Amino acid sequence: MTQTANPGNQENALSKSTLSWNRRLYDSGLRVLLWLCAGLTCALLIFLIGYIFYRGIPNLSWEFLTTQESLLKGTMGILPAIQNTLYVVVVTLAIALPLGVGAAVYLTEYATNHRLVSGIEFATETLSGIPSILYALVGYLAFCKTLGLGYSLLAASLALAMMNLPTIIRTTQESLKTVPQGYREGALGLGSGKWHMIRTIVLPASIDGIVTGCILAIGRIVGESAVLLYVGGMGNSLNDFFASPDKFIHSSGATLTVSLYVFAKERAMLDPAFGVAVVLLVLTFLINLAAKIVGRKLRQK
Amino acid sequence: MKRSQKVNPLESAMHLLFFLCGFVAVAFVLVITIYLIISGLPAIRQVGLVDFLFGTTWDSANKTNPKYGILPFILTSIYGTAGAILIGVPIGFMTAVFLSKVASPKLAAVVRPAVDLLAGIPSVVYGMVGMVILLPGIREIFHLRAGDTLLAAIIVLAIMILPSIISVSETALRAVPREYEEASLALGATEIETYFRVSAPAAKSGIAAAVVLGVGRAIGEAMAIMMVAGNAANMPSLFSSVKFLTTAVACEMSYAADGSLQKMALFSIGLILFIFIMMINVFLNVVLKRERS
């Protein structure tokens, strides 16, 4: 009877001691190590989330989430932070999405010069490798100083758009590549122009991938702190973005992550800080969930 | 048969528009490089390149005799990243082997989303939990005056790069052809021996990519480290308060006076960090390409 590559035989080999003792030691030792490491990772996550919820949830209240901080009334509120985060996410996506999708479309549909394509892809790789503190520095120099925006969320959004461009380009490229070439050739064969084909066939077919890229970018924007701290400011009063164009351009303030940093390090108020951490965790979880759902729909197609 | 096809002007316009979009990434890289070089060179020229890079004292706030040596920061960044990699890569690699080979599908379906969630948590949250838990812990265990140390930063960094290492390594391990493993098992190796002596070497380039990712993330992290590492410009030692290249820029940016040598020195640190990261990327990519060929 020949021995087949069947895991069932492993138990036989081990229990019948057909292995030398040092191989058995290697096997058991590494197995224990594997379970330990995996257990450590899980324990880390459980502890992290558990501790944050344990210290943060007592500080959550309807007032906390929907008002701004008031020294007169002695209350704490993070509505400005939530508002600023929303502003930054929307404006950054409004800038990065068209640019990123356009660049990806160019790379997959229009570009013919291979050197140009690899040049652009190298530039995208480089952009994705630059750490956020350098984006904060350049954002400060380029958008606050040169463009004269001062500390503003708009300047921060521009810097964040630069930072998230590679993510959107990459995910859009991937999803454009999955559109069957037959679709394109059919449209072109029927006499459609290239832009018409892209607009009516290719882009609608790859919308799921583009949405995934958006969700990934939203996750990165929400979690970003260095750029927002140094370009967007730390204010925690409500901004009315739509009061005037000037307000729209020059408003500054802290987002959720920045306000967490300010509460924890600058003001040494850990309770609101943990409350903000809970909000951030819930947001992260929802964003992850959304990405998974869209990803699953993509794979079902 | 002649084809009379008018070139739709809209088509040409859109072609140009997309070309411009494609160029945007290149334009951004150029903008970043130019700004960093222009703002970083003046201080380097004033302080002197050798004094800047190899000077061991950073005392930028001293009114009478300011010193701008960034060697402590460079060494701290190197040691901190090395420490984080030394802790994070083995644990991450083991967890990846566990997830892709040893765990039952149901267990993996629970652990994998957990790892994804860890990856998405903002860095300030890690910094804050580190501040609240790690610092008192280190202070008590090692009988120090304060827990803000390089050790705390290394632990936080290791935890932060863990999810990226796990997911990239797991993808690489899953991509190893089943035939390799079955051949090894058929020749009499145990499963564990197969995983470590056949699958892992076969997934070498993917695991190397995971390490590169981890290095990139560790070198660039600023906010979380700022909350746990103490931020004093010391030469790096495991239990002293230290500044990394990133935190050196971050800390003083808020109070350095505009146009002062202090502020320009911060931009120079940014330039050095940029060059550092470029060098590491190029070096690692060259090494990886050589491995693959």
Describe the strand arrangement of the main beta sheet of chain B, using strand numbers. 1-2
Which fold does the CATH topology of the largest domain in chain A refer to? MetI-like fold
Question: What is the CATH superfamily of the largest domain in chain A?
Answer: MetI-like
What shape does the CA trace of chain B take?
Answer: globular
Please tell me the overall pLDDT of chain B: 84
Main β-sheet description of chain A = 2 strands, antiparallel
CATH class of the largest domain in chain A: Mainly Alpha
Strand order of the largest sheet of chain A: 1-2
Beta-strand percentage of chain B?
Answer: under 5%
Derived structural class of chain B: mainly alpha
**What is the H/E string of chain B?**
HHEEHHHHHHHHHH
Counting DSSP H or I runs of 4 or more residues, the number of helices of chain B is 12
Q: And the CATH topology of the domain at 70-254 in chain B? A: MetI-like fold
